[in-house]
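Mods, move this if it's the wrong board.
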Amino acid sequence: MKKIIPFIVMALLVVSCQHKEEKHKSIPTLRVTNLILKDTTITRKYVSQIHAMRHIELRALERGYLQKIYVDEGQKVEKGQTMFAINANVYKAELQKSKSEARAAEIEYDNTKMLSDKNVVSKNELALAEARLAKANAEVRMAQTHLNFTTIHAPFTGIMDHLEAREGSLLEEGELLTKISDNSKMWVYFNVPESEYINYVTDTTTHASSVQLQMANSAIFNHKGKVETIEGEFNHETGNIEFRATFPNPESLLRHGQTGNILMNIPFKNAKIIPQKATFEILDKKYVFVVNDKDEVEQRQINILEELPYLYIVKDGIDSNDRILIDGLRKVRNGQKINADFIEPKTVLADLKLVAE
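Not the wrong board. Structure tokens:
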């Protein structure tokens, strides 16, 4: 019996050591890192409509046959340049008639004034003659105005659109002839959600940044624009509000009616950046595993401020000194002990093949 006891003790010691060794082996070694604080910029994209700064319709102000077209579709016209002429024979005759009547009224006035000076006629007769002369002169000016309207000039320098009438057409007063666009500057309209509108108007750094225009072929327009106006109220159906950015267009590359995308760069100072792969989702909420001083993992909810390729900008939930688990998230549970292998945040970002700007 005395010989058996040492063997039992030895066996218990071996079992105990094996149990401790197995327990030690069951603690996984997993990589952890810290969030990185870095100035970065995100780019928001908004679908946009491009309008000329001035885009108007040119219409006939008088009725008549379209006698002459001096311009062509798509042509650049200068301010004051003659574009259309309506047959003016009737209006010239009206002007001549008005001038003749004005001359007769002038002669009548002169005679009445001479008689009035000799007290032959009353002052009232002179006043009536003066009024008739004034009326006749006004009719001359009116006839001259109608005649001037038969020649249509460019109201400003711009690009002419499609011709809506041809030479010889009988035009009615107010009939559309063409449209003209002043493309020296372009107004680009885009809709912004309410939350982003609030961020824009409350963040003074955003106002200092300009916007870019991505054209339909995905190329970036070579001039930057600036947000100058915001519409007065939200669209209750979409929850958006309209912004207007102004772009210079010296090469006339942009035309009225084009579409594109506004690119707005939003700067973030000391942004809390973590890899997306360090997060997991439960019921539409984001979580990370934080390793505490006892090397135990703790599930912690975080709020995401913005999303970048492979990265998240975190609003709150973690601090810069927290160790965040980046591997084996599906292999651990809350409260489990691990061996933490710390990896520098910059190394983690480099592994993602992305440099946060």
